[in-house]
Amino acid sequence: MKHSRTGIASLIWLVLIVGADAHDWYTDKTDPVLHWKCCGKRDCHALHADDVRQAEGGGYFVKQPQPYYRNDPPTGEWFIPSERVQAAPDNRYHICETLVPTNREGKITMRWMCFFAPMSTSSIGRSH
User: Fold this and answer.
1) Does residue 14 lie in a domain region?
2) Residues 96, 113: contact at Cβ < 8 Å?
3) 126 domain-assigned
4) In the prediction, which pLDDT does 107 show?
5) Is 40 part of any domain?
């Protein structure tokens, strides 16, 4: 019984370590046009495919996250131009976002910095 508990603990530890490094590929990425750093694990995440749709002339529309202030109405979609789309290594959509102040009252909203799409999509600019 002691060996099985040790094995389970080792397996859990391994999963946590692998999971912690699963998105390290964001770290050295920058936006191909504005050259903003995409940041890291806390600012970047995978998107559900239902939250992304290709624009007719190229690029993507991405459903914006819940507003920072819960009482604010949803703000719609962000448009991601094709020249700012990068290839994702895992065939999923990913976005990097950050909170930024938008006025003197200190109101904070989300702004996207980097966007990644599956390599199989036709709306990828260049990859960095």
Assistant:
1) no
2) yes
3) no
4) 72
5) yes
Distance CA 110, CA 108 (A): 7
Q: Is the dihedral of CA 40, 45, 46, 49 positive or negative?
A: negative
Q: Hey, how many other C-beta atoms are within 10 angstroms of the C-beta on 44?
A: 22
pLDDT for position 109: 73
pTM of the predicted model, to two decimals?
Answer: 0.70
Structure tokens at 93: 């959509």
What is the residue type of 94? H
Domain residues for 85? Answer: 25-118
3-state secondary structure of 7: helix
In a domain, 18, yes or no: no
Per-10-residue mean pLDDT of the chain, 128 residues long, equals 50 41 73 87 85 93 72 75 94 88 72 90 52
Question: Based on the structure, what is the number of domains in the chain?
Answer: 1
DSSP strand pairing (85-88 vs 108-118): parallel
pLDDT of residue 116: 95
Phi/psi for 60 (5° steps) reads -140, 155
